[in-house]
């Protein structure tokens, strides 16, 4: 067996003979440079940021360890197991990634960057110091010799050092080098995955999207759609300003790539205007794709549907949704093609969430990093840019700056309020050189002002409910599920509706559809909601009540009032929608520290801006308190990851020693949201009950692929709970655990209006015998 002169990268199951296996030289060449137009390689991916030679060398060296005799013995012994190679890496039977890393690191500091990528191309980017799994220990590890590797392959020179434009301290420069390493890693792992799939699973590879629609084609279709809307729209003040915003976006799109801001009040048409800017800019500067990032999953489907409607039936498949609430059985939202495209952002128009985008920029896992190289030479739209958490602004803004400086990216800060993340004396980590698309945002604000915001002080639940009863169509937004539930019960209106994260995504979609139907028909419509309704949900109430929160949240709530500017007074003249901000019993309804701080800063700016609490001056005063003063004397307040850990210091340490990075530590520290939640499958609608039945009927040891497929199907019928709530549900004995997945086994515990509740006790016989 060991005398066979051939070296293989991948085997094929019987009855395929060894002559059909993939040779190691062929695999290395495919990962490095691809195989024709249908299979791109790492050099092709890295070319987008002028690093083609780096990508090529990564592809050629990444599997040097497969030139060892033990690995070749292993691949022959396990022929017939489709994923034997990847399995061997995870189980530690044959280490084939350390050899290339050691060879690269022997070339010096630049080679060490390649070593990170090669060492982690299956298990994920390693830390420099991480025990036996860390790169430093891996580079000292005794490995099997790879003497059979061709001498000319081993002797290939390192590429020229990357020409990275950097700003600031040595640590900031080290961050740039670490970011470059992660982008290279993305090129390698995507090319390696695609090349392996191309050889071993031709059917799956054939389903991947080919050359998608160009930005020019998408722009032409968007122009047709906007022209049609404008020709049919009534000649109102709001619509005239929307047309002007779109025209200004197209004009400013001709400017050179970089940072832009689009400061348009809610209801000013910024969603389609920002897309018009992005596609025009992409065509003007030969950029490859548009990525639209949204802070909340609750509105992502609405935005994707808006884009699909704009692009028409034949181009709607070019819109890729990338988030956790997808319904795999919905062919419009997710097909085999789109599922594959989501793995590596292989689409011209992507709608995703801030969590998916930014956590991927700091990720170490191969699955999350595959998409990163696709961001090079793209337009990234950050919807509601002011929603970024203050404690992670330093690494977040540093990553955005890297994308613009070194990867040909344009970033559009799209916001209904004054951009808060631009550089200034009291905010030194802010973004420099942000060009406003709207030259006179104050003038536009006054022209599009459709609401009056009033702070009314503290209201008891009884006082608030009495106020809501006087309105036939009203929206009340509070900061906690418990507060919403208590108000709904006190309201005692059988037709009132409710939205919160306590109801599953499918349930929320149904409630939103009912809200829009009632509002369109002029029917009574009282809604009590948590913040899930705030950002970007297209509803239009004459009256909105908002529990005290940050001014950015108040502005979002105001965007649900008189959205189209169509309210009239008794004399038929236009009038403002009413938004009242009220204080409440914070002890009875505790909330997050961030909401408390935001409400405190709102109260501080209110006295001086009573006349117009949403004016640009009020917004600037608010963010002066909320963002710019949070850094403290050492600025660390803008760089507090999980457990208070610094993300920036994971790159180069205290002194900016750039070859030494803690990639896994950074990924663990950088979390936009606390992900310590457990999904509970709930019996909402017939579909939810069907999913529970499907889970019950699975065999004792279902294949991993079957469980993953089930999780995707079940996502829209789950409610995520924190540990404290999970313990309460377990103590109430309303949960059952099948295959490590909880489902709610008591129908009373899922209220038709409130969703998940905590009063029911015991199991429901009906749900035990589905």
TrEMBL record:
PROSITE patterns: HD_CAS3 (PS51643), HELICASE_ATP_BIND_1 (PS51192). One of its GO terms (molecular function) is ATP binding. Keywords: Antiviral defense, ATP-binding, Helicase, Hydrolase, Metal-binding, Nuclease, Nucleotide-binding. Residues 1-21 are annotated as: Disordered. SUPFAM superfamilies: P-loop containing nucleoside triphosphate hydrolases (SSF52540). One of its GO terms (biological process) is defense response to virus. The keyword Mitochondrion does not apply. Residues 17-194 form the HD Cas3-type domain. This is Uncharacterized protein. It comes from Paludisphaera borealis.
